[in-house]
Amino acid sequence: MSWLGPDDEDDDDEFDEADIRFRPNPKANRPRTKRRPAHADAQIARVLAVDRGRYTVLLDEDTPDERRVLATRARELRKVAIVNGDRARVVGDTSGDEGSLARIVGIEERTSLLRRSADDTDQVERIIVANADQMLIVVAAADPEPRARLVDRYLVAALDAGIRPLLVVTKTDLADPTEFLRHFEGLGLEVFTSALDEMPLERIGAALVGHSTVFVGHSGVGKSTLVNQLVPSAERATGHVNVVTGRGRHTSSSTVTLRYVGADGTGWVIDTPGVRSFGLGHVNPARIIDAFTDLAKVAEDCPRGCTHLPDAPDCALIEAAADGRLGPRGAERLDSLQRLLATFSDRKPRDDS
């Protein structure tokens, strides 16, 4: 019994598979590869600012052709954090002309990374700045009151990153900072103090020459005012302290890199937004003592897992301080170390090996 009609019997090849047309899928049929362009013609640029997926970079630094260029990131860098201070490899339209857009295709190896976390329980790091070698911590003697514990956190982050810390105390006409500064006597910090209109700009500027310095501080301490005095073209917004809450208003909303030009040379100022907290969840406490090279050598004789805190049993550091083997300022430095380590007293050291 045939289901073919009278007009179908001679059309046996109507449904021949050779007549079926396939629509090609170039993406599916293309061989997979992990090869990326070499970008041998890429130029090295300094990242000066980051704003919603666009990066202001400086090309041909310190040459007659120096220019600022706006760039975006290459697709292969979509999971890579690009931050102020990075040395980026840039291709495309690097003219810097209005409407031009270059592309960042790589990041040079970083010499340092200053990081923070949301809080001490969060081990997800947020990179603040790359390749800085100094941190200038700005605090006020009053209005708002100085917070030694916040400064401790800045110091821990700096020591963890291998960055030299400096300290500026503003508004000394409102309060005497002597008692506050005693907390840091054992650290060998270079300290600058100033009244409202008597900022030691020459001394601070001299410390900036030849360095990349990240400025950090609580909101309302006068950090942006200091930046504007050091770099008059910066035009960073300044604010005031709320008389009710005692808190400063966040005025600098983004991190920006600025060139400092002084009588003795130039340097880089990296101004960051004011913060009221600084999480250290990413830091391994075991690395903090490494920044105290003189104490670290003595600590080699401590029992395994020693916290070096005042109640630590058989701590070689405590014993050496008691019998004077740490030297004339050894006890002060041990006290400073213990204060920093106390920040982590409720945490277990991480294994970063």
Give a concise summary.
With 353 residues, the protein is an alpha/beta fold.
Q: So, the CATH homologous superfamily of the largest domain?
A: P-loop containing nucleotide triphosphate hydrolases
Overall body shape: globular
Helix content: 10-25%
The CATH topology annotation of the largest domain reads as: Rossmann fold
Structural class: alpha/beta
- What is the CATH C level class of the largest domain, in words? Alpha Beta
Spatial order of strands in the largest sheet = 10-9-8-11-13-12
SSE succession:
HEEEEEEEEHEHEHEHEEHHH
Rg = 29 Å
Offer a few descriptive terms.
353 residues; alpha/beta; OB fold (Dihydrolipoamide Acetyltransferase, E2P); Rossmann fold; 3 domains; five-stranded mixed beta barrel; globular
Describe the 3D structure.
The chain is α/β, with parallel strands linked by helices. It has three domains: 43-107, Nucleic acid-binding proteins (OB fold (Dihydrolipoamide Acetyltransferase, E2P), Beta Barrel); 113-271, 3-Layer(aba) Sandwich (Rossmann fold), CATH 3.40.50; 285-344, no CATH class. It is built from eight helices and 13 strands. It has helices at residues 26-29, 148-161, 178-181, 201-208, 223-230, 293-299, 316-322, 330-341; strands at residues 43-51, 54-59, 67-73, 87-92, 102-107, 113-116, 126-130, 134-140, 164-170, 190-193, 212-217, 256-262, 265-271. Strand 1 and strand 2 form a beta hairpin. The longest helix is centred in the middle third of the chain and has 14 residues, at 148-161. The protein is globular. The chain starts with 25 loop residues before the first helix and ends in a 12-residue tail after the last helix.
